[in-house]
Amino acid sequence: MKFLQKTIEKFDPLFEKGGKYEKLYPLFDGFKTFAFVPEHTAHTGAHIRDGIDLKRTMITVVLALVPALIFGMWNVGYQHYLALGLAGEMSFIDNILFGAVKVLPMVVVSYGVGLAIEFGFCIYKGHQINEGYLVTGMLIPLIMPVDLPLWMLAVSVIFAVIIGKEVFGGTGMNILNPALTARVFAFFAYPTYMSGDKVWINTATKEGQSVVDGFSGATALGDLANAGTTQYSAMDMFMGFIPGSVGETSTLMILIGAFILILTGIGSWKIMFAGVLGALAMGGIFNVFAEYAISPEQQAFMAVPAWQQLILGGFAFGVVFMSTDPVSAAQTERGKWIYGFLVGFFAIMIRVFNPAYPEGIMLAILLMNVFAPLIDHYVVQANIKRRMKRAQVQTANA
Amino acid sequence: MSTETVEKKKSGEGEPLFSKKNRRLLSDPLNDNNPITVQVLGICSALAITVQLKPAVVMALSVVFVMGAGNVIISLLRNLIPSRVRIIVMLTVVASLVILVDQVLKAYMFDVSKQLSVFIGLIITNCIIMGRFEAFAMGNGTWKSFLDGIGNAAGYGVILILVSIFREFFGAGSLWGHKLIPDDWYMQNGGFYHDNGMMLLPPMALISVALIIWVQRAYNRKLIEEN
Fold this sequence. Notes:
heterodimer, A: mainly alpha, globular, B: mainly alpha, two-stranded antiparallel sheet, 10 helices
């Protein structure tokens, strides 16, 4: 390690002000602080309890995503062999290997394209590289169907980083969650590759293989939205043995991620908890009013037990990893409760009422991202009003 | 605006037809004072009819005609119009011109007319037109008003055409109805390409306009606000 540090420091003068590659300093600094603790020190009387910076925050989220990623890779392989009727013969390693071959290129494309744009903007604008893309780059492949062509993924990433983030001023200034911006772009731009029952499972066959009879590639959520029933049990949905976007299927793995986020204090437990409450509330309302549905399919979907809505589709993934994005979520403590509750509430509402958009959580989070500053504004104003009142009462008493 | 018109009035007589000032009337709205990207007016039609190039061009030409002719008529009438009812007079003028355009389109380009449907009629409510009548034609000579009308309509039309080229090419792989991307590039024919459906949705018109504004401001430093 000492050797590496010495080598890097030898290049310092080249990149510092007046050096040969002054323009590339952000790039150099980015790599240097990736390997070693930054040299920046506080100059004023700061009370430091923990030297956590953006980089460590982001890496923690990426770590929290790893269980979902690994399970996702396994599930891609498992679903593939299940569709071919070979699941019994394939080992755990076979499934993971097949999944890795499909999923890792998505991760590489997402990071490669996104970071290239980010670096380009940093050098052009002359500011330091932000670490914001580390999480976004990992989230994007996890919320896409496995069969999405890589160039579509790349176009979505370009759109998300430029329109979703850089036009607003880069990391920390974006209104919408960039990963969800990528997904919503892909969803509306290439609907045939982002929804329906053909895209969630890779069914490429080699010689001598064929898809089993009666195979359906629809997700549990898609089934329920269209037909009102699904072949998958609640246990399958919780464990994640169902088709779906790469990382969203296993509620268990997402719970492990949520546990890491809450334990390290990086994800807001208030948003997650409020989101679950909101979903249960809307699910409960639907259960009560199921008999008034306009069609038998919708009635069946409305009658799905409220708790089961939590393990369907991308709800868990969205609430844990997307709605808690510290930039686009509400900032005030009371605002987080309102924001989280409405995310869950609207997610289930969109999901049930609009079969064309079964993935309600995506639209619900983006909608609430837009409203988050408004929520914050009113929370702050209410606080000011309350304290003004208290101050007036005190002066009146005095 | 009022100071500007007074100034213009003073220097109205005896200058060449294409003096520097008059040329600016034409060129200003194309860039520095573009009705769409700088004043952000007339966005609704930019949103609605820019899915394909052809209707966008027809729309742009219609607006050029309505604005050029309208500005001239208002400018001729400007001393006869009682200022209390001037908005109604302007509406009458622009409505007559729009009906004229609408009838011509129905007679000679029926398919395009069907595509544009209500949006030709809605030229009447286009804020750029009423804005130029009120701000310019009411206080300036005929020739100047004509140039101003043409210039503003062209500034509007250029953006419309840029946006529609962007949207038609990426959304349908064609321009002016002609397929530009070879058929065997498409995935359903074994290729790798797929049209971007988002381009056909209205939000993409706003995003394209925003991108144009971004590029314009990056090149034209005058437009960047102080604060």
